[in-house]
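Subject line: Sequence and fold of a protein, written as structure tokens
Enclosed: The protein record, placed directly beneath this head.
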Amino acid sequence: MMAVRRRLLPCACLGLLGLLCWVLVSGAFSPETEHQMEFMDASELGAFQPQSALSDMEFSAISSYRGPGNKDQRSNKELPILLWWSAGLFPHFPGDTERIDCATSSCMATSNRKVQHHKRTASIIFYGTDFRAYEAPLPRPPHQTWALFHEESPMNNYLLSHGPGIRLFNHTATFSRGSDYPLTLQWLPTLSYLLQPAAVPLREKNLWRAKGLAPVLYMQSHCDVPSDRDRYVRELMKYIEVDSYGKCLNNKALPAELEDTATATGEEPRFMSFVARYKFHLALENGLCSDYMTEKLWRPLHQGCVPVYRGSPSVADWMPNGRAVVLVDDFSSPGELAALLRHLDQDDEAYARYLEYKDPDGGVANARLLERLEAREWGVNDMSKPNYLNGFECYVCDRENARLAAERAHQRAPQQAPPPPPAKMANNSHMGCPLPRPGYGDIGDVPPDDGWLQIWPLDYWQSLDQAEGLESLIRHNESDPSLLWQHIQNIAVRRARGKH
């Protein structure tokens, strides 16, 4: 468990934007701060000059909870430093530096890049969406590890889906269950979120159908994505009626009071009531990666609608029971899928079986789902639990302290204490996403001037070039990231000569 516990906003904001909103306005910063940071000795203070007039607050330490296993009595100037490279994600407020007291040890956390090469900067934490090979902090000191926080879709950075990209990192928190600090169920707040009764009973859904509502809802305004979902939906529309309200394949207008897209993001009650009228929601992720599941999946389950899902190929591992979703990839064609949806639309008893998971007496039968919800230390919209940003920060802190302690023990008594093993590297199980493919049909059937074809497969392979180029920069101890393109060119030449 992390040290500093923060209160959540009294609103239903899910996801990273909501989390940042919570961190910024949380009430964790008591006016009764007990002491000012003893951060650096006089020779080191230059690296941590305040960035604003809030000098008294910039370096104030928080009177924080200390984990029962944390017996770290070191002063601030003795602690290892964790540098958040993406300052916009720094999970503390209002200053740029804070002491964190975690489960077993303590660290200084900062967003001040001036300490990039400091001898005590043990790890740099990156936000995956912001990580760019041509902006990487170089050279990379041998004593320093890199940590990756990336809960977002692969479309934000395909560099991380390639071996040379992901193995740049030693600690990871991603949507994949294979990462060090998994965020797999980040969009599922609680078990009770699933168990709530259907927002619109089936009898009422049938009345809306009789009034002209289609059986299937599609609502997307982000149209050009790696999963190429619109291509599939366009074909599905030939076989079953679909009401499409977003900018993508739009064929129906939203009520005027719901046109503000923020109503969808924040689960505004009127919006939720409106979409709950539909029997089926097309829940198509923008990227197809194992364990990448968003509100597109969990929200319909919460509302008592049946998701027609394409996204994580391992989604069945996390469903409440064996029948809660209709999986697009279980069908050989959109026509075959449409035939099942038409059958369920006409057979109330068959449709109701998809909602049996809402039975509070054993409807959720997936032991893996129940165990993960019980075991995770962080919460979503839960004031009794810490958030996952601070949680991952403390995960890195505790492991860096353990690594440094092992190194010191070996230096003091090399015969008694063996050298610590090299810092582990992440691999594709931490976040490996495949080459984008067409949403419907074979890639050979896609016209050469197709917009999707000209963007996403190219982006995937160009990201591999950048990952290999950055790996080469680090291997050569380069300090200028602008040399990336030169290294990429050299790699391409060696590859063409059969030497790579």
In short: Confidence is low (pLDDT under 50) at residues 1-14, 21-64. The first helix runs from residue 15 to 25. DSSP finds 16 helices and eleven strands in the chain.
